[in-house]
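Try this one yourself first.
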């Protein structure tokens, strides 16, 4: 990326756009809701089981003007989901201000590893062991989505649940490649610890993006 483009990306006037698409939210509190997804490239959290590793290298995704992203988004849905990658790698203020000016509901899916920027109607926090969330995002998260890959993830989930605000909704979600093994374990855990709910990647069962 040349220097001039990098300055605009660093300001949040342009963002490395990996993809954008209209589909059904498959996970968490808003599952089943039609939403327009904006996937921003760039992530150094490095989850080995990540199912969108192609999002990690921001240089592979073209810097796109925020106004173009907003023009596309407003044509499709009143609910916008900003995801990644890790969208908080970048300053989300300009994008979310522009989406809000169009009267749209804006959700974010984030690991919370970087400073919380932007205006959000819903924050889905999915912490990762490699880079823990900031205190601010713990305080503001609407839902906590913990990915369960192995038994230690139950311990980690409880550690993270102790950090979020009292109104945050708690979810455990099986890592897709391990779902046959961990779903029975999650079901058993949630039945014994009903403060938790089960989240599934229903869009994968529906065979949609």
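Now uncover the answer:
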């Amino acid at each position: 990326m040349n220097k001039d483009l990098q300055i605009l990306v660093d300001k949040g006037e342009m963002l490395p756009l990996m993809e954008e698409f209209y589909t059904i939210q498959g996970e968490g509190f808003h599952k089943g809701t039609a939403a327009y997804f904006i996937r921003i490239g760039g992530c150094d959290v490095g989850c080995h089981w990540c199912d969108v590793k192609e999002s990690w290298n921001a240089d592979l995704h073209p810097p796109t003007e925020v106004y173009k992203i907003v023009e596309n988004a407003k044509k499709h849905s009143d609910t916008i989901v900003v995801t990644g990658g890790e969208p908080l790698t970048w300053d989300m203020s300009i994008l979310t201000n522009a989406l809000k000016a169009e009267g749209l509901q804006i959700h974010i899916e984030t690991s919370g590893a970087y400073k919380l920027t932007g205006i959000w109607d819903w924050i889905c926090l999915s912490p990762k062991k490699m880079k823990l969330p900031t205190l601010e995002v713990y305080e503001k998260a609407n839902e906590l989505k913990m990915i369960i890959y192995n038994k230690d993830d139950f311990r980690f989930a409880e550690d993270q649940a102790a950090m979020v605000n009292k109104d945050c909704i708690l979810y455990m979600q099986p890592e897709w490649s391990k779902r046959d093994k961990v779903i029975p374990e999650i079901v058993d855990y949630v039945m014994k610890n009903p403060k938790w709910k089960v989240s599934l990647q229903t869009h994968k069962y529906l065979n949609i993006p």
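Discussion: The chain has a mean pLDDT of 96. The chain is about 30% helix and 25% strand.
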